[in-house]
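Supplementary Note 3. Input sequence used for the single-chain structure prediction.
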Amino acid sequence: MKFGAFLKKKDIEFSAKRYGIDALGAMAQGLFASLLIGTIINTIGERFGLAILVTIGNYAKAATGPAMAVAIGYALKAPPLVLFSLIAVGGAANTLGGAGGPLAVFFVAVVAAEVGKLVSRETKIDIIVTPAVTIAAGVLVAIGCAPAIGSAAMSVGSIIIRATELQPFFMGIIVSVVVGMALTLPISSAAICAALGLTGLAGGAAVAGCCAQMVGFAVMSFRENKWGGLFAQGIGTSMLQMGNIVKNPRIWIAPTAASVITGPLATCVFRLQMNGPAVASGMGTCGLVGQIGIYSGWLGDIALGKKAAILPVDWLGLVLICFILPAVLTLLFAVPLRKAGWIRPNDLTLEL
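The predicted structure, written as discrete structure tokens, is reproduced below.
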């Protein structure tokens, strides 16, 4: 059997879609189902003095590496034994990757999953060979590469964070626009933010950009999609508009233009920071995760003595940047676009 046919038989496909969209998007779901939901539960527990919720949240966060790896394996269509073996691989990669663990898990889990698929069901002792090969390959790659990958990811993230602190206006625009557009594209802005450890002012700009896309598309398309579309995009994802963007890219102008304004307002005026989990920086208003992340960061800063209290201006900035300004600005930008015929009736219609 030719090697190409063998790879096809094993469902191993070297493509940008398989790795850059499917696997990366699944990794974000794994992050959500562990670190992010754990942080939310933990925050609620700390806020209301419920120790059991704090404990539940801590256990969820502890499973971050394995959750990401299994999610990646699922996206790569790994057989059961390979999929379950990735639990150990994810734990090793996330630990060895340090603060840049998510990116390390991504690369290591992809390698381990594909290697495991190569040997899966090829021997009569598959129950021994497949887990052994998958775990050994994954852990060896993690030992050899995860620290460097994690360090590189955090270095890039640190550069972006530092640059945003030094040039909050221009970097506020860049981060807001880029991360916001990534959220709408069929890639994972949450995974990107997590991989780079994007927090602080840069994280605040990322939240602003994501909210501009989600809230912007939700309100701009209200006449076509009504309340169902408002909630599907506003607390779900603006990625639902990707098909319409392909048909008419001009519908993307208004929410993106809104992010150009809300990004620097977040960094320069309200000093909005994401000091919660970095993955929340790329979530926007999806399940209100971005806002919960900012709130958990406030509580963390108060506990560390970095912040005296949550002030009214903090809440004002959060509401304006995440909800009111994205809606108002997008609608204003959309008016001339509709008059010019760049946005036509039903251009924003979703099949819900």
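The mean pLDDT is 92. The longest helix spans residues 126-166.
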